[in-house]
From TrEMBL, chain A:
Transmembrane domains' residue ranges: 39-61, 98-123, 129-148, 169-188, 194-216, 223-241, 247-265
Function in brief: Key component of the proton channel; it plays a direct role in the translocation of protons across the membrane.
Compartments where located: Cell membrane; Membrane
Protein name per Swiss-Prot or TrEMBL: ATP synthase subunit a
Keyword Transmembrane: yes
Gene Ontology molecular function: any one: proton-transporting ATP synthase activity, rotational mechanism
Membrane topology annotation: Multi-pass membrane protein
Pfam families: ATP-synt_A
Keywords from the UniProt entry: ATP synthesis, Cell membrane, CF(0), Hydrogen ion transport, Ion transport, Membrane, Transmembrane, Transmembrane helix, Transport
UniProtKB/TrEMBL annotation, chain B:
Organism: Acrocarpospora corrugata
Name by which UniProt lists this protein: ATP synthase subunit b
Organism taxonomic ancestry: Bacteria, Bacillati, Actinomycetota, Actinomycetes, Streptosporangiales
Name of the gene: atpF
GO cellular component, one term: plasma membrane
Keywords: ATP synthesis, Cell membrane, CF(0), Coiled coil, Hydrogen ion transport, Ion transport, Membrane, Transmembrane, Transmembrane helix, Transport
Bilayer disposition of the protein: Single-pass membrane protein
Amino acid sequence: MNTLTVLASGASGASEDVFTPPGLELFDYPPLIAGVSWFTKPVLLALLSTLIVVIFCWSAFAKPKLVPRGVQNVGEMGYMFVRDQVARPFLGKDADRWMGLLLSIFFMVWIWNLMGVIPIIQFPVASHIAFPIVLAISIYVLKIYLGIKHQGPIGYFKNMMFPPGLPKPIYVLLAPIEFLSNLIIAPFTHAVRLFANMFAGHIILAFFSLVGFWFVFEHLTPLGVGLGVVGVVMTIAMTAFEMFIQFLQAFLFAMLAAMYIGNSLHADH
Amino acid sequence: MNTAATLLAAEGNNPLIPHAYELVVGIFSFAVVLIVVGRILTPRIQKTLADRTDAIEGGIKKAEDAQAEAQSVLNQYRDKLQEARQEAARLRDEAREQGAQIKAEFQEEAKAEAQRIIAAAHAQIEADKQQALTQLRAEIGRLSTDLAGRIVGESLEDEARQRRIVDRFLAELENDAAVR
């Protein structure tokens, strides 16, 4: 199934009571239904997240009232946050036009991430890089399309690589750097930043909870119990911190998307 | 280490290599959210927010209009009140003037009437007096002759007789007066 688990179990065959920190096997799931190889827990959670986002937004925005009630209030808070903190600072008067995309991205990424701290589920969807990649590539394609559409095929690359107002020799250095950073590194970091944060966060939570579980419940020893308590306390603290990071990463992902779109719409930003 | 990495990659376990089926599910999920949330729902909430802004601004505008109207009505009312006060003052002055005039006229008339009545009374009195005098004069003459005739007719024998005649005469006179 998994090399590390196999290795670990192979090793632990000799000494059962050795603490083994969690590794990459955390992110490896077998199919939920035997024979349907694609239907794993991350896939299920991705579909579940989609359902949650759609249902939440539907109940909040499907029949919006002038005087908001119930879920609409919560939904509007999310909308206002994305509009005022993400869309408007980067898109200005174009903000409303792109709110649909940015709102979808923000809610989706946030729910993906939240899956990491929901009891029993406890797996951040974005820690499988395929999901951030889908969003990042979508934004990347959109960014290039908008850039060429609004600045012209030559103008887009010219504005990107040769921003006006710099001494000539600088361009020798700047042009390749800008090209590299905008067209190759940007989509990669866009996806990897979200992925890596969720990936690392999941490992940290798993590690501390395993420390707590191992030293307090499974192998209670006078020496180990202190460590176990630290593990439990850290698990709680890191869960709170993780929730903050999950929100922050969703915000950042949407913000970067807005920034890329804004840069493509207007050359000098 | 190297072998472990290749082993992981071979098993499709490298966290940096996306699973193909997850890409498909990701694209599907994103498309669904984008269509439902981005295409269908976002315009609705945007419209509602715009309507809300309009409603609030409209409400403020309406309130301002109402206030302006109230102010103008108040001004009109004040003007009218002022006008009415002036009108009332004018009417009062007029009435007072008229009253005074009427009073003066009445006084004049009454005075004239009184004068007339007094004059008439004077004339009446004068006439009565004249009549009385005339009557008296005739009476006195007749009486005098009457008396003188009697005195003379009785041939004036004695003083006592004369006195009786005079007394009788006077008594007759008195009787006459009493009868009358």
